[in-house]
Every structure is written in C-alpha cells, then in structure tokens.
From TrEMBL:
Name of protein: Phenylalanine--tRNA ligase alpha subunit
Gene name per UniProt: pheS
Main location group: cytoplasm
Lineage: Bacteria, Bacillati, Actinomycetota, Actinomycetes, Streptosporangiales
Cofactor note: Binds 2 magnesium ions per tetramer.
Species this chain originates from: Nocardiopsis flavescens
Keywords: Aminoacyl-tRNA synthetase, ATP-binding, Cytoplasm, Ligase, Magnesium, Metal-binding, Nucleotide-binding, Protein biosynthesis
Length: 372
C-alpha cells in the first residue's frame, strides 16, 4: 500500500491559478457595476455568481487538489466568490433604491388636481318637469305625440281655424321662416303645440288620446316671465261622447298629481279659434289657498295674492278643426288643452325668473339633480 503522496505538487489547474481567479473576480465585479437595472443584475448574478459561473466551476476543482494546495486555493476562490456575492448585494440594494426613487417620481399623484374636469351633467329641469307632466297623462292611458318645431302655416294656423287676418299670424307674435328667395315660405316656427292636434288626428286611428310636449316660439323679449322660446304640453282627446266634464276631470287629476291632491281648479271663459267653448284654466294657489286674497298683511308671492294661478288654455275641439283633420264632427267630439311648462316649473319648484331657465348655468340645472 503506498503512502499518500503529500509531496506531490502539481501545477495547479488553470481555473485555480491566482491570476485566473483574479481575472474572473474582476470580470464579475465589472459586470455587476455595469448592470443598469435589476433585470440586468439578475442576469449578471446568474452568470458570475450562479452554480455554473466560472468561479463556481473553479470551486469544484479544489476537491481534486492535494491537501496542501486545497486550503490556499479554497481561500483564494472563496474570497473571490465572497467579494462577488457582496458586490451583487450592494448593487442590488443600490438599484432597488434607484427604482423606488424613480417610482416615487414617475407614479406621483397630485391629489390637489381637480378631479371633476368632466363633471356629470344633469338634465334640464324643463325636460324633467315636461316628462313628469306628460307622465301624469300617460298614467291615464294617453300616448305621446310629436310634431316639428318648424311647422307649415297650414298646421299652425289654417287647420286650427285661424282666419287669415288673425292677429296671432302677424309679425308681432310669429317667427316667419324666410323662403329661399327672401319671400314667404309658408313655414313658421310653431307658435304653440296645437298643430300636433291636427297631425295626431291625421296620422292616428280614432279614438285619439295624446299629449304632446314641445318647444314653441313667439317674438317676445326675454324677461323675468317671458321667453321667445318656451314649452307647452298639448293634450287632445277625440272620441265618441266626449264632453267638457272629462276635460275638467283630466285637468283636476293633473293639478292634483303635480301640485297636491285636493287643489281646486276653475275655468274662465276665453277664446281660441280652435276650441269652442274655450277657457283659461286656473288652479287654486297651492301656497296660500286663497288666504292672501284681500289680506295686505299676508301677501302671497306665488299667486300675487290672487288666490289662483293660471296654468293654460283649453276647450272643446272646434268642429272645424275636426273637419280639417278629416274627422266627422257628427260622430266624434273632443277637447284639448295647452299647459305652460315654464309656468309649471316656476310654480312647482319656486323658480322666480325665466332667465334662470334659459341661461344654461349648470348651477341651476345641477341643483335639480340628475334625474333619469
Ligand atoms: N294653443 C293655445 C295657446 O298657445 C293653448 C290651447 C291649447 C288652448 C289647446 C286651447 C286648447 O295659448
């Protein structure tokens, strides 16, 4: 049996040569220093400090060395590996700190920036009130009818029994649409929603139960109570055996549902070419219920101490209108009404000035909330 060959002193294998270990160490440290981000550093770590890195492979050679050489080579390679591991750790910490810094800057949120640069809109209260008014009648079985805002004079006037010399036709009230040659076009901005009565009768099967909310136009100056553009809710019933009593009942139902149950209504005799008889519709003031009348100490701002509030016009459909719309007045009869939507909004919501309704200030519309 031979003794251990302790005196054997082979030339060390190349990877364990001091110069080579130093070179691998330097190479690793340079690569670590050059890593620009954490992803790069990870690759560098695998290449220079991982299980298959040159220093790890060199480490494996140590076992084959004679004992005397083992210690020295182990120290050399171990020191290099420790230095590399330490450098990776430090670089890792530096790059993480850099990243955290960058994230703080790049992902900074200025909590003082306005968050509502596109605030949610609100529907205009005229729209929501008009819908609620129409809904009262829809609940009674009425349908919604429509007509154009730019209307043929025949629908707006002639079919409604306005004589050619009726004052409503003159320039004082009506916006006439100019023809292409600057002359008469036969078309106007509708001055009321009543032309929809004729359109509904011409286009629908009888009986007809409709309401028509819409925009109307008259040459009024804008002031606290007038606007050249305003809105009406037209109502029309044409059926067999219809009387003014049904009209009164429908108006009462409307007033009760919009302003409060039990409010009285009254009809004052009036004139419209398209209804006969005709009436102005008043409702009892829902604020003072008449208590302010003749009591100067308790004036009512809502009804100007009149006790009554005018809400529109109405009447029994003139047989001439039925004839113009092709309906036999011997068989059918009906009634119609026109209610002011601005007036309803003013009274139902205490809006005092027409300017608030037309100026488009969102503080006004949003105060009513976004109803659906
Ligand atoms: N069209 C009328 C107006 O604008 C109102 C009305 C409608 C009157 C229907 C009677 C019947 O004043």
């Amino acid at each position: 049996m031979s003794a251990p060959n302790n005196s054997f002193d082979p030339v060390e294998v190349t990877p364990l040569h001091p110069d080579e270990v130093a070179r691998m160490r330097e190479e690793a440290l340079a690569a670590i220093a050059a890593a620009q981000d954490l992803a790069e550093l990870k690759e560098v770590r695998l290449a220079h400090a991982g299980d298959r890195s040159p220093l790890a492979l060199a480490n494996r050679e140590i076992g084959a060395l004679p004992p005397a050489a083992k210690a020295e080579a182990g120290k050399r390679v171990g020191g290099a590996r420790r230095d590399v591991g330490q450098a990776v750790k430090e670089r890792q910490a530096a790059l993480e700190a850099e990243r955290d810094e960058r994230v703080l800057v790049e992902e900074r949120v200025d909590v003082t920036l306005p968050w509502d640069r596109t605030p949610r809109g609100a529907r205009h209260p005229l729209t929501t009130v008009a819908e609620r008014m129409a809904d009262v009648f829809v609940g009674m079985g009425f349908e919604i009818a429509e007509g154009p805002e730019v209307e043929a004079e025949w629908f707006n006037f002639d079919a409604l029994n306005f004589q050619p010399d009726h004052p409503a036709r003159t320039m004082q009230d009506t916006f006439f649409v100019e023809g292409p040659d600057g002359g008469d076009s036969g078309v106007v901005m509708r001055t009321h929603t009543s032309p929809v009565q004729v359109r509904a009768l011409l286009s629908r099967e009888l009986p007809v139960y409709v309401v028509a909310p819409g925009k109307t136009f008259r040459t009024d100056e804008l002031d606290a109570t007038h606007s050249p553009v305003f809105h009406q809710l037209e109502g029309l019933v044409v059926d067999k055996g219809i009387t003014m009593a049904h009209l009164r009942g429908a108006i009462d139902a409307f007033v009760g549902s919009m302003f409060g149950e039990g409010l009285r209504t009254r009809f004052r005799a009036s004139y419209f070419p398209f209804t006969e008889p005709s009436a102005e519709v008043d409702m009892e003031c829902f604020v003072c219920r008449g208590a302010s009348v003749g009591d100067p100490d308790n004036p009512c701002r809502t009804c100007s101490s009149e006790g009554w509030i005018e809400i529109g016009g109405c009447g029994v459909v003139n047989p001439r209108v039925l004839v113009a719309a092709g309906v036999d007045p011997e068989v059918y009869s009906g009634w119609a009404f026109g209610l002011g939507i601005e007036r309803t909004l003013m009274f139902a919501h205490g809006v005092r000035d027409m300017h608030d309704m037309v100026e488009g200030d969102i503080r006004f519309t949003s105060a009513f909330g976004s109803e659906n």
